[in-house]
Write a structure and sequence with these properties.
single chain, alpha/beta, Urease, subunit C, domain 1, TIM Barrel, nine-stranded mixed β-sheet, five-stranded parallel β-sheet, 22% strand, globular
Amino acid sequence: MRILIQRAAVVARPEEGVIPAADVVVEGKHFAGVFGPGEAQGEFDRVIEGEGKLLVPGFVNAHTHLAMTLFRGFAEDLTLRDWLEKKIWPAERKLTGEVVYWFSLLGLVEMIRTGTTAFADMYFFMEEVGRAVEEAGLRALLSYGIIAPTPDRIDPELKKAEAFAREWNGAADGRIRCALSPHAPYTCGPEVWREAVALAKELRVPIHTHLAETKREVDEHRERHGKSPVQWLEELGVFAVPVLAAHCVWVDEKDIDILAAHNVSVAHCPSSNLKLASGIAPAWAMVRGGVNLAIGTDGAASNNTLDMVREMRLAAILAKARAEDPRAMPAPEALSSATQRGAQALGWGKDLGAIAEGYVADCVLFDLGAVHFVPGHDPLADLVYTACGADVEMVMVGGEILMEGRELRTLDEEEVVARCRDLARKFR
C-alpha cells in the first residue's frame, strides 16, 4: 500500500526540529521520503490530511510490565519492598494466562491511544503477552522475568526464559523480539547471571533487567559484595552482551562511566521512581556521560499510566531540577529519549526513530487543534511540555494504521474493558 500524509508539520528527527509543512510518503512498511507540500509524485491508495497536525516518530516505552494494568490502584502509598513483598508478589501468585492476556490487551489499548508504537516488557505468562502483541500490531521486546534467589529455582526459571525466547524471537513478522531478563541483582545470584549471559550470546538476544533502583538495594549490595550493583555486573561479564537496564536511580560517576563504556542502555522511569520514593535518577548526568538514555513508564501498578507523552514531560522537567539547570534535557533531547534512543535500547536503532527514507514507518500524528497548543510558537516544545496522550489522532506501525481519527483498528476496546473489569474482581 502507498500512503500519503500531506501538509503535516513533521519532526523527521528530534535534533533537526520541526518542518512546518511536508508531505510524507509510506510505501509498504517503510517511509519512502519526506517532500515539500505537493511535491510527492505518483498514485496513492490512501491520502491522510495532516494540516494542523504534527507527525513524529513513534514513542518507544523502554521498560514496562504490560499486564500489571491489573494492579492499577491496587497497592498504593507503600515502599518498594512492602509494595512487592506484601501486595504485588502475593497477588501475582494468582495470575493465570487468561488474566495476563486480557490485561496485556488493556495495556496495548492504552499505549496505542497515547502514541506508543514499540515497548520492552518483562513479566510472566509471556506467551499470552506475545499473543496480545500479535493481535494489536505493536512492536515489542519481550522477556520472561527470571526470579531465582535460591539454587533450586535457577534451572526451571532459565528453562522458561529460554523456551519463550526460542519460540517467540522474530514472531509477528519480526515485530516481536526477545530478551533474557534476570529480574535484578538482589533476586538473582551470580550463577543465574553467568548462565543468562551465556544463553544470551547463544541466542543473540539482549538482557533486560532492573538495576540500582533504590538506595536500600544499593547500600545492601555494597555491604554484601563491596561494590555497587553496576560494578558487580561488570565483574560478572554481564555487559559483554547488549543490556537494557531499568531505573539506575542510585548510580555514581564510576557507574555511569561503566554503563557508557559498555553501551548499556538505561530505561529512565521517573513516575514510578517518584511514586515509590525511590529517588530521582541523574538522567542528564547519564546523557552527558555518554549513556543511551531511553524512557519507560514501568508498569501501571506503580505509575499509574502507560502514557509516554506524560512520561517524557516529567523526564525533561525532573532532569532540570536534578541538575539545577533549566538547560538540562532540552525538548529535542527529551523527545529523542522517548523515540530514537528508545529504539536503540530495544535493538531497532538502525530501523526506527526517524521519519526518513528507508526507515520503518512507525509514526504518530498529533492533533494540534486543542487550546493548549495555542499560540504554537514552537511545536516541538509544545509536544514535550504541553501535549498529552489524548492529543494522539493516528498511530502507524510498519505502515499499518492501528488507530485513525482516534478509532482503534486492531482491537475491540469495549470487549477488552468488559473482560478486564470482570477478571479484576478475583483480585479484590
